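Data deposition worksheet. Section B asks for the primary sequence of the deposited chain exactly as it was used as input, without tags or linkers unless they were present during the calculation. Section C holds the resulting structure in token form. Section D is free text for depositor observations; keep each observation to a single sentence. Incomplete worksheets are returned to the depositor.
Section A, Depositor: J.P.
Section B:
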Amino acid sequence: MRDTFWIVLFPFVLCAVFWLVSHVKTREKKKACALIMILASAVELAAALSLVVCDLRGIPMDIYGVPGVGGLGLHFMYSGFRGIFGVLTAFAWLVTSLFSYEYMKNDTHVIKYDLFNLLTLGATMGIFYAADLFTLFFFFEIMSFTSFVWVAHRQTREALYAAGTYLGIAIAGGMAILMGVFMVYSRLGTLSFDGMYENAVAMVNSGSKADVTWLFVAAGCMFVGFGAKASAFPVHVWLPQSYTEAPAPATALLSAILSKTGIFGILLVTLDVLPMQGSWGVFLLMIGIVTMVLGGIRGVMSSNFKTTLAYSSMSQIGFILTGVGMQSLLAECLVIASGMRDVDASWGVGINEWYMESENIAEITKAFGMAVNGTCLHMLNHSLVKLVLFMVAGVIVMQVGSYELNQIRGFGRKKPFLLVTFLLAAAGVGGIPLLNGYVSKTLLHESIAKYGALLSLAEGSFIEPMLSATSAMMRVVEILFLFSGGLTVAYMTKLFVVLFVEKNSDRKVQESYEARKKYASMPSKFAIAVCALPIPFIGALPNYVAKPIAEYGLVRFGLSALLEHQQENIPYYSLENLSGALISITVGVVVYFLVVRVMMLRGVFSHNKEEGYHEIFPAWLNMEKYVYRAVFYTAVPFVLGIIARILDSIVDTAVVILRKTVYSDRALPYELPEGNRVTHRIGYTMERVRLLYYAVMRKEGYEPKNYEHKLAMKGTDFFENFRIIERSLSFGLFMFCVGLGLTMIYLLMVN
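Section C:
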């Protein structure tokens, strides 16, 4: 198979077969549906690998699209980066499907879960193989809605609450991306990634600052949507509860793959919409730093196993965003050094000459290559690690029924398989030498350090005042980068000690934990082991395993000529590179003993003095509950309700004034006691007919039925219902007018 289109289409077509099997009346249909899911993932993996093999052998790829969809059509393409994450996506779906076979066997909604799992697989493949921004947005929205079912799967109150937050953020993010797509298309005239890059470069070189400003606005809008999926600050609020409430296989995919679709979108926006824009790189760098520090702090302070892993994912996404920001900063330096673009006139012409010195060009090129390779590798490494960790979390909850640290203490004792796989993943994400996370974090750290060192070379020169502030900022960034690495070591040490070192406070519970030898099936153990296996190989042989992968996935976007000479191996285990890991490990040990052992375990700052781990992060700092929901669910509807009520009262007052003046009511020929003319006439007639009936039939005992009063009451109820509808309609018309007005303002601004 040499066509990316069929890889994307296959899961959607298989959904029809899945639906037919799910409606067969047999006891084995759950097993059949699970096997279809495993088979689909295996076929997708084989197809994705065949694309990589064809590309490596130089066989041209078949390019195919679906014209007419949405007016622009769907288009797909292949590149090394897309190939790597296509393979990784299919691999992740395969191992989680194997794990789900045991995990979901007693679930009442397993068929629905597998169906939406299949739909999400196709949508995710569509994202990674998209050739233009419209195709990316099309499948991104499908993925958001199908993965929503994962979070709501348990259908408990907590799961539905988390799913509501997830869906709300997804819808708002999707609308933000759509606004960005409109602006990009209006300014660049195309949504093709290659075409956007060329037109954006031409626009920057032409000096059109107004158009470039609009590109920044568009990129900001798209960052909201893609950043929400990646769980970047401040649109990360859906992450902790969604990760905790979703089934473990779904959480593994959310962290390992779906978060990378958000990073993929941000990466493409950075490289194609705002290529080589250092100010955009500074923005991403700041967001990345805040995300990784905040995620690390929350991970350390959490007393829930799965919530700790959720905030760990957020922190690692911060590391990746830092790498993307460094790419943008260093790419700008490269184009300045190559003479392709001058810096702003306010910086002076001398800085171009300084950048173009040969030794500076070599250092910039080396740092840029480290940022690019480090970003790609950390995305890959984080996916492998989180697949292991969340599947281990699934094993724990199947056996213990809880993720609370006090409940799972001691579960991993005398379980060597669980210990080895968890230790590899935990140490890998912690950046411990000889494991995969060390390689990617070293590359990212060295890109920051080299950029800072490059800026410090200007000290004493005529451009020192212009670069001193940036140099100081990079020193702070490097310190926070190493500190965040230490936080990772601290919360992973916390989880390891809880599972494998400490004993449960209840002796009988501990004995039952240690007696459980068959805590996972062979398919589940295989799924965990096959994800853990690459972790030591990538770390121990970085120049033979990690480097070829990174170079194959390298997205060069017009800078290939500047990177061709960067072929030497990197001394990962030199004293200089090891020192960064040593600093992070030291910070991690200090944080673990001060925060976990003293504050959490002993409850120094907690009102709850019971034995065990205590959640120490202040509840009032919950952004999702006290900021987003408070604003969008309470404050905004309240304000809009007041405005609508005021406008509705103004309209009612105007109507009353008109009725009293211009359209004054015509006086009735006589006063009606109640009701209106129609009810009065009909009631009066019915009463006379009944009286006539009694006279003709010569019946006695006639009593008036008061039909006029009864019909008047019915008429009042009938018209009151209409008034209620009118009031609702007036509010709806008002909201429609507001939305129409905002749309018109937006279209006028864009055009």
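Section D:
Strands lie at 65-66, 74-75.
The longest helix spans residues 707-750.
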